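Cont'd.
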Amino acid sequence: MKPRVLCLLFGAILAAIPIFLTGQDFSEEGQRLERKWVHGMHFLSTAGQTSFEDTEIGFGMEYVASRQILPYLSVGAGAGLNMIGLVETRRFAPVFGELRLFPFTQARHQPFLVVDGGYAWAWKDANSIYRSVKGGMRLHAALGMQWQIRRRGVLFTDFGYIRQGSQTQRNNFWWWTQNLDENYIEETSRINRWVLRLGFGF
Amino acid sequence: MKKFLWFPMISLVFLSIAVSGCLKDECEAEHFYVKYDPVFILPANLRTTIQIEPVKQIEQPGKIYVYGQYLFVNEYEEGIHVFDNENPSNPVALGFLPIPGNIDMAVRNNLLYADSYVDLVTFRLDNPAKPEMVSRLENVFPHMGFDANRGFLVKYEPSEVVERISCSQATGDQVWLEGGLWVRKDVAVLSGSGNSVPGNTTGIGGSTARFTLGREHLYTVSETDLKVFDLKVPEKPNLANTVHIGWGIETIYPYDDKLFIGSRNGMFIYDTKDPLNPRQLANFAHANACDPVVVEGNYAYITLRDGTKCESFTNQLEVVDVTNILKPNLLKTYPMHHPIGLSIVNGILFICEDDEGLKVFDASDWDKIDQRLLDHEKGLTTFDVIALEKEKVAIVTGKEGIYQYDFTNPKDLKLLSKIKIETK
């Protein structure tokens, strides 16, 4: 089975778990521990170096729907748009499943560990010089902090690492080149970035 | 709360930028290209006495040529298959004439003229099953280079290469492309048609032939030149003249005492009243495209097709009025699928349409050709056709075989035979 399909399957399973557990409260410790959906919006910034050793700053936004299934664990699924760079080969639309661990279940404000994985698509511009632009596997892990600010409102931030696969094919131009199908370069990249996210949930 | 939030946020932003150097993209790059390695042949290996060999399978057919009851099929750059085609329903293979570098041929008075890279070789066909080599005229055709140790540079052999390179490397190694600057251009595999030459002892070549025969002369075209060979001593042709025409010359087609020369950007018409000194009468320009041409009566029919080698995006049939040979006049253009070789006999126009097969039109009215499709042979990929007026047989080279059709009723072509091609 293709990795892309496996990732989507993984995300779908994660997203489906809370549905099966609906209505089974497991704690009375506070709002966060209720079995409810949390809709979270994340605004993110990425930083790292390209293979040319140029510093590249990116930005993006992601939506995650998650559900607390255990006092210390929530699962969810998300999608978004990540502009890791400004060019078409660094623009991704990820879909992923997420696990979020809360070590201190009694606290109103508390740290968490988040891990998500999935697949991100890429697409080329209409007047692209590339033969093809493909995305790849996405993996993200971060440590963060969450603050409960209202009964159904939280703010959170996390800082971590994201790894994004990418594959491009471009023609290798020479002035006398006539048949470009015979001469092209395929690049397979694993984009590694620090990522800082700010978000809110309700 | 605000202080609690913003201080770590800003710190983290700066921290992530500061440590961005710790995280770098991992990248692997592969360069896919076609490498063209030069192929040389030593004069001693090229210039041997050529003798017929046993029958072998056709693998990469080039041009076809009809001489009397015999059919000659070029094996691209390797030689000529000889068939006894007295019965088109059952062509009989007689043998294979191994001529290194052969692409073109012409036959008259039992003499076969064929190119062998840079040489012109002549065979006697008194017994076509056993052609006898009678002469070799050396160094008359252009070559791409000569190395004292390795001989003539005759072609570039393509091979697919995948090479791992650094992602920061802007381009890969330099490559040569077939159809490019240094690689021999030839349309042998691509087209043909019914090109008839005056005289009942002269054979018939296709519309994409580069060889054709005049009364006592053999005319050949290279990429840039028209060469005139004097055949006063038929067994020993003599290069009498070389006329520079221009770039992109592809085909030559004789009609009356004129030569119609197809090039990638037009059609040249040459007068051969002085056969050793052909004189240009007209130049009919068209868009860049590969363009075989045939002529019947006052009309020339030109197919233009696209493709890398043809440097074009055009696929069409052009009908040109050549009543005033000095001023050819485009009468009409018909859009086509991907026309290659063509042939015309008594107003019946045969066009090879590549993967759309063979189309037969009634061209008696130049203005209504598209409305008069007589027959369409589908399910085959066709490159070249020679229509034989007397025998009412159309010989078609295709991807899978060489087909012979009876066109007694041009509205209903009958397949007579198929010579199978064994693709390498």
